[in-house]
Design goal:
Blueprint: H1 2-13, H2 23-49, H3 61-85, H4 98-119, H5 121-135, H6 142-163
Length: about 170
């Protein structure tokens, strides 16, 4: 009898999770999935146009595989979002300054493209990481900036040094 009371008290203390889906989120996800479905075959077609070098791992292997994964993920996201849309409810209004954050993210991407040739991949990518994280609400601190530098440096070493894809180095050589 006490076990039943404990279970009932525990169940009463824990609020039921809201499993309903926000209508705006479901629509946005379905649209994004549709864009992925379109972008996947475009990547596949572009990958097939790359010249082969006769090796098993030619330059088209990764873009082709990513195109297939992009299209499959897009189909799954569209299917799930359209399924969730049937039971979706009206959501809460957008968070304050949401449009400014999206504009800031777009401006950060434009700035990244503009400064990339001048300051190099590592510095531009680390700055993009930090700005994006801050705009999305990450806490300030040295870990944010250290993580951005580490991630950018790792990507640079992987693509530029290991794979051999030349990335902009900037005045510092990285």
């Amino acid at each position: 009898m006490t076990t039943e009371r404990n279970e009932q008290a525990t169940a009463a203390a824990e609020p039921e999770p809201d499993l309903s889906c926000d209508r705006r989120t479901a629509l946005s996800s379905a649209i994004f999935g549709g864009l992925m479905v379109v972008a996947g075959p475009v990547m596949i077609v572009d990958a097939r146009r790359l010249p082969g070098d006769g090796s098993a791992m030619g330059p088209a292997v990764m873009p082709f595989a990513l195109g297939v994964l992009l299209a499959l993920t897009g189909f799954w996201l569209m299917w799930r979002s359209l399924r969730d849309l049937r039971s979706a409810v009206r959501g809460h209004p957008l968070r304050s300054h949401a449009a400014l954050r999206v504009g800031g993210l777009a401006a950060a991407l434009v700035a990244f493209a503009a400064v990339l040739p001048f300051i190099g991949y590592v510095a531009a990518s680390a700055a993009l990481f930090a700005v994006t994280a801050l705009l999305l609400g990450a806490p300030h601190g040295w870990r944010l900036y250290a993580g951005g530098w580490a991630l950018a440096a790792l990507a640079f070493l992987t693509f530029d040094r290991l794979i051999g894809l030349t990335l902009p180095t900037g005045p510092w050589g990285f």
